[in-house]
Structure formats: C-alpha cells, structure tokens
Design brief:
By secondary structure, the chain is α+β, with helices and mostly antiparallel strands. The chain contains seven helices and 25 strands. β1 and β2 form a beta hairpin. α4 runs antiparallel to α5. The relative contact order is 0.16.
C-alpha cells in the first residue's frame, strides 16, 4: 500500500515540474520572439539609414544599392561619419585622425611676408631715340652726288651729305638775283627780304644765301648738310634718285648712349618698376655682366606677345653696345604693396580655372575639420600666390593633401572645388 502511495506522489511531482517548464516556455517564447522582432526592426532602420553614392559622381545618393545613373558604376556605401553629418555645414568636412595621417595632410598658419620674385627678361640693344634725327630733303630734285656710301658711316654736324639738283631752288635763287638787280629803294628792300625768306624756308643756309648775294648768280645745286653728329643707321636713297620735298633720306643716331630694351610679360610687370636694378649679359660678350636702372616702362601692352617694353639707358663708350644685340637679364624686386602681403604655397590652392579655393582648419572642432574657402589670387610667385582676398593672417590652411580633403568632401556630398 505504501508503494502505491509513493508512486502517485512521484507522478504528481513530475507533473508539477513539467507544468512549470511548459509555463516558463509559454512566457519566454513571446518575449524572445518580441526581442528578435525588435532587434530586426533596429537592423532594418539602420539599413534604411545607410546611404549609397557614386565615387565618380558624389551628388548621386540613394538609400539602396544599385548602379550610378550617370556612369553606370556600382554605388558604394557612404561613410557613417559622412551620413551622420550630412545636414551639418555644407562647406565643412570632418575627418578622423587616422584619415588625416594616411592622407599626409599638413597645415600651415597664414602669415604676412614680403612678396619677392626674380624676373627673367629678354630683349635687344636699340639706339636712343632721343639722340636720333632723320635727314630729309628740303627741296625736290635729283641726287647729283651722294657722300654717304653705306649704313654705319660716321658723320659730323654740318658735313655735306649730298648735292641735290633742284629746279625749284634754281627758281627761288633767281628771284633773289632779280630782287638784287632792282633799283635801290623801299620796294627793292622788300623784294630782297622776301626772296631771302623763301630760301630760308627751303633750309638754305646763311652761307649759301650770302654766296648768292655776293655772286648775284643763281644755281640749281644745293648741298644737304648734316643736322647732327653720329652714325648713319638707315639709308633710303642712292645717287641719281629723284626725291620729293620732305622725303626722309638718312637716319643718323648718336650711339654714345643706347637703350637696353627688355620685354616683360604682364604677369611680371607688378614686380618691375622704374628704379629697379637689372643685371644683364650679351651673347657677344659671354661671362661679362652689365647693370643698369629701369628708366621707363611702356604704358601699353603688345596685344600679340602680351609684353611691355622695359627700358634701361646705358652709356656706350667705344661703341661696345651695338643695336640689335641680343641681351638676357634678370631683376629681383618686390611688390609695390609688399608690406603686409599674405602669401600661401601653391600646393594650398585648388584652382579650377574659374575660381580658387583653399581649406581652412577649424580650430574649435574636436576632430579635424576643414572649411572650404574661396579666395581671390593676386600675383603669382615662384613658390606661391599672393592672396588678395578671402584669408586673414593667423588662419591655418591645408598646404599638403588639399586634394585628399576635397575628395573626402565630394564623397560626403559636401561643397568642393567642383561645385558650381
């Protein structure tokens, strides 16, 4: 009897334990299912927040994988840091310390410095135009004799250059002879003075006029006298030529002083000014350097070569400088407004052709953050640019790795150098 009672007691205990297990499962399963469902909803929400973009066209963004509608490339997931700050400042891009190190990004504080540049100049030796004179024919006629044989002949002031046979002169001297033969009186004096004045207008010298008055004989020949001393640099006549009144016959230049005329490109003109020292050499005298001061800069730019003439006046003892000699020079100068000029390295500037931008570091941000800044460039230097507007002294800019920062901005959908 006791065995039967023990059996039923054991069976009741098992039933109770089984009931407890089943009850526990009934309670646990809904909780587990709900938990899985809740976790799944979080995953779905996270996936929904994932943004995909094109590495070539970062303006393309969508919330699912696919192809770029522009180039057909596979879309790539946008970095979480970019997705989370998509609605932040569009001009700023945030990078991790690791990304900055991998991209080898370097920064530099903008400071004021003197903008200096060595300008290379090329040009020629030319005669001093202020010491040049053109010898013209004052009367029309034929070149009976020519005393100047070739360009390069030396002449002195008052020297006879040519003898001209002139019917016009013959007529004018006949008028003087006729006036001299007129009876004495006020009328004769007026006629003589008028005839003499006519000869003077034909540039007949007083000596030649006095000779006509003394001999009372008209002559069709007149001597062309040099009006300056120097070297003949141009000859436009030959013996036997018929010339008109006022026609240029010879050009005479005093080569005791010459011009060294250099051509400076428009980008170099801000660095060259009157008073700048130019050191130059000549191909004819290698190894010898000459120096002079800029005395004049052409006010007009040549439309074809985009250059302006820079003149240096040089004394020419012994005639060592000859016109048309090739010269090469250089001038080291600073900008007119060099004091307080902002200069940045060329590597810091991203130039698109229409605009120029730099990246300025945000010192207040906890993580490396760089702001896109459009700047106005001034003069170009060998290693940098003058900043006319857009930066202030003391700001820190990216000087190395600016392209990497800009690429990060493009992938993040931020404004970049490619933005319009």
């Amino acid at each position: 009897m006791s065995k039967i009672t023990d059996y039923f007691k054991q069976r009741d205990a098992k039933s109770i334990i089984l009931g407890l297990v089943v009850g526990a499962l009934v309670v646990a399963i809904p909780v587990w299912v709900t938990g899985r469902s809740h976790d799944h909803s979080h995953d779905t929400e996270a996936e929904r927040k994932q943004v995909y973009t094109c590495s070539m066209h970062p303006q393309v963004k969508q919330d699912h994988e696919g192809k770029c509608p522009i180039c057909g490339m596979d879309l790539i997931p946008m970095a979480k840091s970019h997705a989370t700050d998509m609605h932040d400042d569009p001009n700023s891009v945030m990078m991790s310390e690791e990304a900055v190190a991998l991209a080898n990004i370097e920064t530099e504080v903008v400071g004021q410095s003197a903008a200096r540049k060595e300008v290379r100049l090329f040009g020629k030796i030319r005669p001093d135009e202020r010491l040049q004179q053109t010898q013209a024919a004052y009367v029309s006629g034929r070149i009976e004799r020519l005393m100047i044989n070739a360009v390069g002949d030396r002449v002195t002031r008052g020297q006879t250059l040519a003898v001209i046979y002139s019917p016009e002169l013959y007529s004018a001297t006949q008028e003087l002879v006729a006036a001299l033969r007129f009876p004495e009186g006020p009328q004769r004096k007026a006629l003589v003075e008028a005839a003499i004045e006519k000869l003077r207008l034909l540039n007949i010298t007083s000596t030649q006029i006095n000779e006509v008055i003394r001999n009372k004989k008209a002559s069709p020949y007149v001597s062309l006298k040099a009006n300056t001393s120097g070297t003949v640099v141009a000859k436009n006549i030959a013996q036997g030529d018929y010339v008109a009144q006022g026609q240029p016959l010879l050009k005479i230049a005093d080569l005791s002083r010459v011009w060294a005329v250099f051509q400076a490109y428009e980008g170099d003109l801000p660095f060259v000014r009157v008073g700048s020292t130019v050191n130059f050499t000549l191909e004819a005298m290698p190894g010898k350097t000459f120096s002079g001061k800029v005395s004049f800069i052409d006010p007009l730019l040549d439309a074809k070569s985009r250059t302006a003439g820079v003149r240096v006046v040089m004394n020419n003892p012994g005639g060592m400088f000859k016109p048309e000699m090739i010269i090469t020079g250089n001038a080291t100068a600073s900008l007119r407004h060099a004091d307080g000029t902002l200069v940045v390295p060329k590597s810091a500037v991203l130039w698109t052709g229409k605009r120029s931008v730099v990246y300025v570091k945000d010192e207040s941000a906890e993580m490396p953050t760089f702001e896109l800044r459009e700047v106005t460039l001034g003069e170009s230097l060998p290693e940098g640019y003058v900043i006319a507007d857009g930066l202030a002294e003391g700001e820190e800019i990216v000087t190395n790795g600016a392209f990497a920062v800009d690429a990060t901005a493009q992938l993040g959908g931020k404004k970049s150098m490619m933005s319009h």
